[in-house]
Amino acid sequence: MKTQKLIKPLAICMILSVISCKDEAKKDSENDLLASNNNVLLQEWTGPYDGVPAFDKMNVNDIKEAVEIGMALSLEDIDAIANNAEAPTFENTIVEMERSGKELDRVLTYYGILSSNMSSPEFRKVRGELAPKLSEYSSKISQNEKLFERIKTVYQASKDTPLEADQQRVVDLVYKRFEMNGANLDAEKKKRYAEINKELSSLYNDFSNNVLHDEENYVTYLTKDQLGGLSDGFIKSAAKIASDKGQEGKYAITNTRSSMDPFLTYSTERELREQVWRNYYSRGDNNDEYDNKDIIAEILKLRKERVGLLGYNNYAEWRLQDRMAKNPENAMALMDAVWPAAIARVKEEVADMQALASELGDDLSIKPWDYRYYAEKVRQAKYDLDSEEVKQYLQLDKLTDALFYTADRIFNYKFTPVKEGSVPVFHPDVKVWEVTDKDSGAHVGLWYLDPFAREGKRSGAWATTYRSHTTFDGKTNVLASNNSNFVKAAPGEPVLVSWDDATTFFHEFGHALHFYSSNVKYPTLNGGVRDYTEFQSQLLERWLSTDEVINKFLVHHETGEPMPADLVAKIKKAATFNQGFATTEYLASAIMDMKLHLADPTNIDVGTFERETLAQLKMPEELPMRHRTPHFGHVFAGEGYATAYYGYMWADVLTSDASEAFREAPGGFYDKELADKLVKYLFAPRNAMDPADAFRKFRGRDAKIEALLRDRGFLATNN
Predict the structure, then answer these.
(1) Residue 236 burial by CB count (10 A; 0-12/13-18/19+): exposed, middle or buried?
(2) Domain range for 230
(3) Between vectors from CA 499 to CA 495 and to CA 503, what angle results, nearest 5°?
(4) Helix, strand, coil proportions of the chain in percent (round to 5)?
(5) Is 240 within the bounds of a domain?
(6) What is the rounded distance in angstroms from the CA atom of residue 221 to the CA atom of residue 247?
(7) CATH of the domain at 184
(8) Do 229 and 387 touch, CB atoms closer than 8 A?
(9) Nearest one of 134, 150, 177, 12 to 79, comparing CA atoms
(10) pTM for the model
(11) pLDDT tens-place string over residues 612-664
């Protein structure tokens, strides 16, 4: 998982990161309600940098009351707009909607942290109670007939007399959002639509809780004689985790990717590799009270019923209409074009691994829990490249400096640590930097980094904002965060990460730079098109392998010596190694996501559907989907990536093509002229410009799939 932002209901998305400006009557009502309690989560942010969240005062006991009051205040905003006696205009309808809901927005920042970074059994209980209420709140806005009539009036008037480009974009996006969420339905269908959303909200919550349960409760403990192949750093970290869990003298392999992946790559204990593999890939699929298969079946039925109310044949058709792909056929065409080359490469990789296993005297057939282990041995044999050797040069602190160097060279940003204690944080692991313009010194925002795995923190890596940029009401100070799940090193030891983890670190920072680069007026324009917004972050990954970053920041954690030229050459030579595995495990999940939502869910058996679909695809038996259906949180813990997981590959076509532009530029990846175009057209506009138009302005043409195939080693390169 590379990035997964907190997904909020429709109306909450519409009021995200907005500063409210109300009339006096509304202010009196608001003040009365706020004065009746001292809930800190509702209060305006104070302190430096235009105010920052009071994370140090955050308490789970306050969250339910704060959300309920925040919703009430937001609905007052909406009612005032809907019941305005004046004729609807852009200013008194759309602009006022952009201003609404500041109290709830503040509360939801804390809610997001408690949900993703600091979850607890107490919070999960509260979240379960709030999920249907948030859904009802969202429906009250999306189904407010008076409000929608005003929006429709402004929308229709803009077709006769177009507004300024950014205003028109806001109107079009707001109208489309309401239309897609049932605003044009009759009363009976609206009622059912809202009921479905309420049911889904509870199912999404249950799904997430079940996955988190299995991540927390399936831990493999090793004894000293079971550590073969594991690095000293990994062993020390595993010992510390076990000790923290009350298992002194043992070594813990937690049920997360950051722990599972290196164990499967290096452990010589095949039976334990299988156990760790099965724990990880069986999350949500253990046929117990935490099993997600029946929940998924119900989600699929409700989604199809809901879009059926709007006249769509399936969920994918409804969801993709406002994405770059436009329809499921186009998304499937891209995946179908790449799939044969991917599984063909897997066969080659497995043959190489099987041959090497035989040479080593290992009498076995490659199984999924063997793939990483023998792939690493093939890497060493074929390219003389040892991932553990590479890891010695990938220190988390130095990689953080490399992020800042890239931000300096391409975006002109400077990152400076804030004085400890000057900005509240929600956990001691969280560090904060101030972001400024390198030349003018102008303040841009704050960057919060929460790098380490811990109990109660969801797995994966993601980026989010606590406050987004707009020029709308004068506050342009961005508060953004990156969140990872690196395994914390033992005391006194450096945090060393894999090349893949370093790539993900750059990826998530790309999202943060996208937030900081925003140059839009209206909050709605800070949103994005799902199969486009991964492009910017995927592109930033490419700077990790530039000579400048390698030579300056990839230094040995003991000697301080830069990575040797021959090792750099090996890394670049092996750039397309194991692409069969990487592409196939991802694509299998993306195709499964789409096919699940195109299928008839009436009597669907999720486990059977997964098995039969993989068989039809001729999925290689030696590897699994990256996200098996029962724990596919992108798709079933909310709707952000539902029928949209393909978007990573859609965005990667753009990434590969844009990367070729940098490789061809006189200054390479640090070409000033091209970097300026990158920021101007691909980062700063956010959703103020149609993504396809933005890419054409940068590249001079549409992206070509051949660039992606070359990148993955499935086609010959240009050289």
Answers:
(1) middle
(2) 218-281
(3) 100
(4) 60, 5, 35
(5) yes
(6) 8
(7) 1.10.1370.40
(8) no
(9) 150
(10) 0.88
(11) 999 999 999 999 999 999 999 999 999 989 999 999 999 999 999 999 999 99
